[in-house]
Design brief:
The complex is a heterotrimer of chains A (374), B (286) and C (441). With 286 residues, chain B is mainly α. Helix content of chain B is 77%, strand content 0%. Chain B folds into 2 domains: 52 residues; 167 residues, MetI-like fold, CATH 1.10.3720. The radius of gyration of chain B is 24 Å and the shape is flat. The relative contact order of chain B is 0.14. Chain C is α/β, with parallel strands linked by helices and 441 residues long. The chains are: A mainly alpha (374), B mainly alpha (286), C alpha/beta (441). Chains A and B meet through helix 1, helix 3, helix 4, helix 5 and helix 10 of A and helix 1, helix 4, helix 5, helix 6 and helix 7 of B.
């Protein structure tokens, strides 16, 4: 591009006439806040009238040091990077394949699929969060199904135990056997397990076998709980899946729009030459869209790093902060209680810096792999 | 390219498997989409008491009371026209200003391009939380607090970084020869923009519009800072009146959410053909 | 006689016209008050709240209310923005603690102790008028309520059906578990997916009894540590609650909103939550239905303090915190018409009539003494609970910064799941506290 030459006269006037409206609005809405954000992040401003009130000034880079030494920050950053990975290597390829299927009409009713895959973008995030919590609650539908299975399993084991001891009777031996099946968590319910369990068994009417089985299952059968959600290594997986579902449709639309630019004749002649759809995709469509893909990657990176509402309404960053991402980390630390403006601005500038780094990396990859365009 | 063609049946089988996998995943996504919408609408007909004991089943005694109360409490009648204005006004502004700037950045050479364009790209990355206080102070200084203008300007400014970026990259792909031949024919830059560039950027303009419309429709953090009068607020602020954490009235909340979602849903269902057409219209000329 | 009549008529006319003129003059200088109201449209009492403001407007034509209504985070964000720009409204709603830190610490609100005066304030409870209960150590606002964050809602009938009484000690509570559990009934329900309920509704009370307020103050002053025995012992009580099966471990995955319905349906014998939760059970005006029928509220349910804990230092204390209230902008000129109007509005908001409406709609129990209202049985039991349990202790999240209590909240979940030991959690909290202290300097 000949971007760096001096321009004169009409072209110069036209240039500024076209750039200035956007640039002025930009300076107002984004430029000033960025500058103020940088200033605040190294200040000791603590609320109150910002200009003309109590004076505040430079306080050093303590907030940045505080962030760097906080393990929760690094955890949040790690989670954010997972989201970036899912976005770039999940949403983009999937969105591309879906767009191609729709574009080439390789699926029945392409219009329907295009519509339905984009639709998640419209669903309120609050609804997704609430539904998520309801479904994964230990008392929700998954819990109901799993608990029924655990009960059956436990009652089968009980039946086997009774059969091996010649039938059920509230004897000490049977009680010991039951407690064996119940495991340590079950035994912890009692102070004197064998005696207390026998007492409990005696309280059932004679011949009330179904009640006994029910009661024992209530007491000792495993209870389902979405424990995988509390394990730091897997807690993010369902969240990532929801993110994949929510935003893939957006890239479908982006890619589809740009596929429409490809000259249909190029594809037709390739087909006549015997190229399969997979090959058309790889050798014609993919190169034609390389620019769009890079742009989408940048979109995905910036969106991933500043996303907040979806995860906040799904998990609130929990349980035990394992699904915290940077923006939630900022909210929890700087806004939830006493607002801490320097800290909030420091965190958000760190987010910007990380995004810039990732985008620079994307551009570098594009330069190395690019060349097919133009 | 020729050596990459797998032979006959194997290739066909691979393609069939790929297609089946695609169908499976698309169906799963579709289910994940339809179910929440259904769940929301279904629960909006339950009383809160019923929802608390029956979160997943059909309503036992469907009621419309939630809607009547949500509509009047949320004052949605006042908010709805504002939402339309902000969403479509700001989107139009973003598309137009991005196209102008994008044309200048891509086709009119200037030393200023590098720093200005670069600064736009940084703007893509800011989180809303950091913008709020500075924006509020600014808006007060300019005396446009509590005006629709302030909301529109801020929304346009928010969307510009991404819009300018996408436009510039797109217009760079348009052959410079087109611009130059129009110049030789004596056309001014304004005319070139109108008659050469604008028709060609339709696909990317549609893209930018799609990216912004649902975002602005659901935005509440910024507009909350910019206005205080109910007459100037938008739908999300009305919906937000219903989403409490303590002793929530879920029935009304679900009704409010349905009210908030329905227009976008209808808009998309009604116009998704036009959206695709808008995209292909650009393709014919490109 | 006639003259007298004429004189009288003239006098009357003069009086009327002067009154009318006076009225005109008054009308000419209507005072506009900017008010920020915290209002949730889906809460019980919304309609009544709207009417409270309309009534004031009608009764005070010389004041024009310019009102902004917000709720939850948007309210706080807006208040911060107003504070930053120096354009706070004249009357606004404020939290006693760190959530409204700017107002308290920068002294942005008038001292209501001075403005309202001791004569007016003597009708309010001592806890409400104690400046030490507010962050700035002065009366930036007047708490409308003094909230107990830790109440055992007990299904007395369910317990009686199984041969138990309302438990008073930890041992009694533990003894109930096997029998109840065998019937599929949880002994104690405490939904803790959101992290704060365990800390706010149970742990604070346990810490208050085992460690005590003085200990927490010492920790804050650096004279004691979270890793000291009293605090670790408090955490150990929580650990044993889960180990003994009193609270199910899976309740750490139950959302806060779910629990009220679960308790009402008889799946738990005891439900631990704040006193505000009583409002969840009152009759819904639009459907005429209640989660718990008022008759059953009266006969089958009681409110009780958490059971006594082995080794407790301060038996019977219950965690409590000052509630929210109204503030007057500190920038209003003393003696100005605006200030007078603001005072009139605030006095109206705290009037027995308005407070009775708040009480009747189950929003809170007023700090104004002697407010009577026709309330449903469960709500009526709340003030009785206050009277029987007058010794209170801190709520931990009211004392420490989020950087500290966030670590405690997640640590309590880890203890509940059995993945961390009390000593390890205590060490994490101390570390977070040290880091916060270092940064706060």
């Amino acid at each position: 591009m000949s971007s760096a030459r001096q321009i004169h006269g009409e072209e110069g006037r036209a240039y500024w006439a076209m750039v200035l409206p956007a640039f002025l609005v930009y300076l107002l809405v984004i430029g000033f806040p960025i500058v103020l954000s940088v200033v605040l992040s190294v200040s000791d401003y603590s609320g109150g009238k910002m200009f003309g009130g109590e004076s505040w000034g430079f306080a050093g880079f303590g907030q940045y040091a505080r962030i760097a030494s906080d393990p929760f920050f690094w955890n949040a950053l790690k989670n954010n990077l997972y989201i970036v990975l899912v976005s770039v290597f999940g949403q983009l390829p999937l969105g591309f394949v879906f767009a191609y299927l729709v574009y080439r009409k390789l699926v029945a009713r392409p219009g329907f699929w295009q519509g339905i895959l984009y639709l998640p973008n419209i669903i309120s995030i609050i609804v997704v969060g609430l539904l998520w919590q309801t479904i994964f609650s230990p008392r929700g539908p998954i819990g109901a199904v799993m608990n029924a299975a655990y009960r059956r399993e436990f009652q089968d084991a009980l039946a086997a135990l009774f059969a091996s001891r010649g039938g059920f009777a509230p004897t000490e031996e049977i009680a010991r056997g039951i407690l064996e099946l119940a495991g340590p968590a079950g035994r912890a319910l009692f102070s004197d397990p064998v005696a207390e369990l026998r007492e409990l068994l005696l309280s059932y009417p004679a011949g009330g076998m179904p009640e006994v089985l029910d009661g024992l299952a209530n007491l000792f059968a495993r209870k389902w709980s979405p424990e995988f959600l509390t394990r730091p290594d897997v807690a993010m997986l369902p969240v990532l899946f929801v993110i994949l579902w929510m935003y893939t449709g957006m890239y479908l639309i982006l890619f589809l729009a740009n596929m429409q630019k490809i000259d249909p004749q190029v594809i037709e002649s390739a087909r006549i030459d015997g190229a399969r759809d997979g090959q058309v995709m790889r050798y014609i469509v993919l190169p034609a869209l390389s620019g769009t893909i890079v742009n989408s990657a940048i979109l995905a990176i910036s969106g991933s790093l500043s996303s907040f509402a979806l995860i906040y309404s799904m998990t609130g960053g929990g349980p035990s902060r394992v699904t915290e991402i940077l923006s939630i980390y900022m909210y929890n630390n700087a806004f939830l209680g006493r607002p801490n403006f320097p800290l909030a601005n420091a965190i958000s500038l760190v987010i910007v810096a990380i995004s810039l780094g990732l985008i620079a990396a994307t551009k570098a990859v594009e330069k190395r792999l690019g060349g097919k365009e133009e | 390219m020729a050596e990459g063609i797998p032979t006959g049946a194997a290739g066909r089988a691979a393609q069939a498997i790929a297609k089946a996998a695609a169908y499976a995943l698309m169906s799963l996504f579709a289910l994940m989409t339809v179910y929440p919408i259904l769940w929301l609408v279904m629960n909006s007909f339950k009383t809160t008491r019923e929802f608390q004991v029956n979160q997943l089943g059909w309503p036992a005694a469907p009621t419309l009371a939630n809607y009547a109360e949500a509509w009047s409490y949320g004052e949605f009648g006042k908010l709805f026209p504002n939402s339309l204005l902000y969403t479509f006004g700001a989107t139009a502004g973003i598309v137009l200003l991005s196209a102008l700037a994008g044309f200048a950045f891509a086709k009119l050479g200037s030393r200023a391009t590098r720093p200005i364009y670069g600064s736009f790209v940084i703007g893509i990355l800011l989180t809303v939380n950091t913008l709020m206080i500075p924006l509020f102070i600014e808006v007060n200084l300019l005396g446009i607090y509590n005006t629709r203008l302030a909301v529109l300007v801020v929304y346009v400014g928010q969307g510009l970084p991404m819009g300018v970026y996408l436009m510039t990259e797109y217009i760079r792909g348009i052959p410079t020869a087109l611009v130059e031949s129009a110049r030789i024919d004596g056309a001014g830059f304004g005319r070139i923009f109108r008659s050469v560039i604008l028709p060609m950027v339709l696909p990317v303009a549609t893209t930018i519009a799609i990216l912004n419309i649902s975002g602005i429709w659901n935005e509440f953090a910024l507009i909350n800072i910019l206005v205080s009068k109910t007459e100037l607020k938008s739908l999300p602020l009305g919906i937000y009146k219903f989403s409490g954490s303590l002793s929530s009235d879920y029935g009304k909340q679900f009704a409010a959410l349905t009210i908030g979602m329905a227009p976008m849903l209808l808009f998309y269902l009604a116009f998704h053909k036009q959206i695709t057409q808008g995209v292909s219209a650009g393709a014919v000329k490109g | 006689m006639k003259q007298k009549k004429i004189l009288f008529a003239l006098l009357a006319a003069a009086l009327i016209s002067s009154l009318a003129l006076g009225g005109c003059a008054k009308k000419a200088k209507v005072v506009t008050l900017k008010v920020m109201n915290y209002q949730q449209a889906d809460q019980a009492g919304y309609k009544e709240d709207v009417k409270i403001w309309e009534d004031f407007q009608k009764a005070n034509p010389d004041i024009k209310l310019d009102m902004e209504v917000l709720f939850n985070d948007p309210y706080h964000e807006k208040l911060q923005a107003y504070a930053a720009a120096g354009t706070l409204p004249d009357v606004f709603y404020v939290w006693p603690g760190s959530r409204s830190a700017v107002i308290h610490e920068k002294k942005l609100a008038k001292d209501l102790g001075v403005i309202l005066g001791t004569e007016y304030l003597k009708d309010f409870s001592a806890a409400a008028t104690n400046p030490a209960n507010q962050l700035g150590m002065y009366m930036a606002m007047l708490p409308q309520a003094y909230t107990y964050t830790s109440v055992m809602y007990v299904n007395k009938k369910l317990l009686a059906d199984n041969g138990f009484e309302v438990p008073k000690t930890y041992a009694e509570l533990k003894a109930m578990v096997p029998k109840l559990k065998a019937k599929g009934i949880a002994a104690v329900m405490l939904p803790n997916k959101d992290g704060w309920p365990m800390q706010s509704c149970l742990f604070s009370t346990v810490a208050g009894r085992v460690a005590g307020d003085a200990f927490l103050r010492d920790v804050k002053a650096g004279k004691a540590k979270f890793t000291d025995k009293p605090f670790v012992d408090s955490l150990a009580v929580i650990e044993s609650l889960y180990k003994d099966g009193i609270i199910a471990r899976e309740d750490n995955q139950v959302g806060y909103g779910e629990a009220a319905g679960i308790f009402a349906s008889g799946k738990a014998a005891i439900y631990v939550d704040g006193d505000w939760r009583a409002a969840a059970y009152i009759t819904d005006k639009s459907s005429g239905k209640a989660l718990i029928d008022p008759k059953a509220q009266e006969s089958d349910f009681v409110l009780a303090p958490f059971v006594s804990i082995p080794g407790e230092q301060n038996p019977g204390v219950v965690s409590a915190v000052a509630g929210c209230g109204w503030s007057i902008n500190g920038a209003l000129k003393a003696g100005s018409p605006e200030e007078q109007a603001a005072v009139r509005l605030v006095k109206y908001l705290y009037s027995p009539e308005v407070q009775a409406i708040r009480f009747a709609t189950g929003q809170y129990v007023p700090t104004r003494k002697g407010v009577k209202a026709d309330v449903e049985p469960l709500v009526a039991k709340v003030p009785a609970f206050y009277a029987e349990n007058d010794k209170t202790c801190y709520v931990v999240d009211g004392v420490f910064d989020p950087a500290v209590y966030n670590v405690l909240n997640s640590g309590l979940i880890a203890i509940g799941l059995g993945t961390k030991k009390p000593a390890a959690v205590a060490a994490e909290i101390q570390k977070a506290f040290d880091a916060w202290k270092a940064a706060a300097k």
